[in-house]
Amino acid sequence: MFENFGNFDLEILLKLLLAVGLGALIGFERELKHRPAGLRTHMLVSLGSTIFTLTSLTFDIEPARIAAGIVAGIGFLGAGNIIAHKGHIRGITSAATLWVVAGIGLSVGLGEIMIAIVSSIFVFIILQLGRLEKSNHREKTDQVKSDGLD
Q1: Four-point Cα dihedral 123, 129, 131, 132, nearest 10
Q2: Residue 110 half-sphere exposure, CB side, CA atoms within 13 Å?
Q3: Domain ranges of the chain
Q4: Rounded CA gap, 44 and 37, in Å?
Q5: Which of 16, 68, 69, 139 is deepest in the core (most CB within 10 A)?
Q6: Tens digit of pLDDT for each residue in 14-42?
Q7: How many Cβ atoms are within 10 Å of 67's Cβ, its own excluded?
């Protein structure tokens, strides 16, 4: 039962820590925006995906089946974040970040570290575009209001 306990690989530990760190990078941004799927959720999704991936590599089955299961499972988790209320839909970006964080964890588990790191940076940058959109929208709204008062 515990025969492999002493053989715990440092590489596995580093992969798990990287998955948590990359999930935290994205989750921190969501936490700052007070989204329901925040820091801990993103860290756990990334870590879980890495664990499933690393474990699947030890099975005698095709690891792609585990990857497909991760994608499907995260789809349900993401769908739970999407809320439709009075004609407005909220939570789509949070659902998308959970989906991509699962992919990042999967990449880490497969040893595709550069894909995981670069993807995390891209996601963080993409999420910052929301601030630009809101700022741009406010400027246009203010311009319309001031034009209407003249």
Answers
A1: 170
A2: 14
A3: 5-143
A4: 11
A5: 16
A6: 999 999 999 999 999 888 888 878 899 99
A7: 19
